[in-house]
Structures are given as structure tokens and as C-alpha cells.
Amino acid sequence: MPRRGVGRGRTRARRTARDAPQRRPGGPSRAEELERLAATIRACRLCPLGRSRTHAVVYRGSLRPRAVFVGEAPGAEEDRQGVPFVGRSGAILDKAVASLGDDLGPYGVLNVVKCRPPANRFDPGAARACRPYLDRQLELLAPEFLVPLGAKALRALAPEAPPILRTAGQELASRYGVLFPLVHPAATLRSRRLAERWQDDLGLLHAWLRGRPLQRA
Ligand code: URA
User: Fold this and answer.
1) Ligand 1: which atom is nearest the Cα of residue 149?
2) Using a 6 Å CB cutoff, which residues line ligand 1?
3) Is the domain covering 27-210 a CATH 3.90.1150.10 domain?
4) Is 190 exposed, middle or buried (0-12, 13-18, 19+ CB in 10 A)?
5) pLDDT digits (tens, 9 = 90+) for 12-50
């Protein structure tokens, strides 16, 4: 059932990888800057999670993504492998992405918090410490839109937005550009209602993507 638009209206003009910061002559390439940033994140000790983690979890996906999926924080499997969304939530996300086919285009996956919080409890202090990393990743990747997964990711990207269950499945303006929030894939494992919501919202995302054909850079 279509839901009322929340936060629709004016969103920033579409961004593409072409809008990413320009390389200064003789300066590092975007890929080099992303790799340097990844090395900084992997060595980070700005908060206590830097000591309890196995691996910092930085990014997986295209270096010129059209869309970036933004999760909360790594879980146990992500901490073990150092890669975002490779556990049960990742399997759900990968299946969803596959269902979008060519309409999605190149994409990437990252988290607001880069290190696993003990007992997987979201840590606002860690989110504050990681914020410059998130901002710089998004600046360098310059996706056309972001897909916050769940309430914590939505709050990090659009603190003023209505709750996730009112915003999931529709376009939303933010200071990070266009968002298309979804409930967190892990929530679909806990609740049949949220599993149905996930499927409904994926259908809405797919329809939205068909209405904004991929612009090849
Ligand atoms: N949940 C998240 O939010 N991120 C991950 O990387 C894995 C599970």
C-alpha cells in the first residue's frame, strides 16, 4: 500500500561519482585517498572499541557507487572478516540487491560505526568518534543516493527525520543528499511484520529506481 510521503520535496540535485572531489594535479587519486582513509580507520584507537575489535570494518563494493547502503555497526562475522554485511544480515541484503538487478547499478556497503560494539549494542560515543570517517568516505565515494538500514543509520544521516517506520520505503532529503531508508535486514529475522515491510519497501525502492534510470558516468 502506498504510504504518504515524508520529507519528500526538494532534495539536492543528483550526485554522481563525477561530483567527487577533483584530483589535484600530482595529488593522490580517489582510490588512493580511499585506501589511505581505510588504513587510518584500521589503525584507529579513538574510542574503546578500537581495543576490543578483531578488525575494523571499512567498506565493500564499487569505488564509483551509485548507491551506498549504510548499516549500524559490524556484527561478529564482520568483525572476524573485516568486511561489512557478511553475516546473516549480509545474506539478506545481498539477496535484496540481487532482486534489484541492473536497476540498482554499482553500489557499496559500509557502517556508521567501524568496529564491533560488545554484545552488538549500538554505541553513540563510537558513532561520534567515527563520524569524520563516515563523512570522508561519503565525500570521496559521492554516491547519487544513500540507503540507511535501520533506525540508527537513519538517525546518523538525518537526525531530524521521522522514525524509520514512517520513512522507510520512500525518498527523503538530508544534508547527505537523497536517502531511501529501509528497515534493518536483521529486523526481518525477528519479526514477520518487519520481514513483510522489508519486502514491501524493496518493491518501492525498485519502482523508485525504475523512475530514475542509471546515468552512466
Ligand atoms: N549489521 C550492520 O548494521 N552492519 C553490518 O556490517 C552487519 C550487520
Assistant:
1) 3
2) 71-75, 78, 84-85, 87, 89, 111, 186
3) no
4) exposed
5) 445 554 456 667 778 899 999 999 999 999 999 999 999
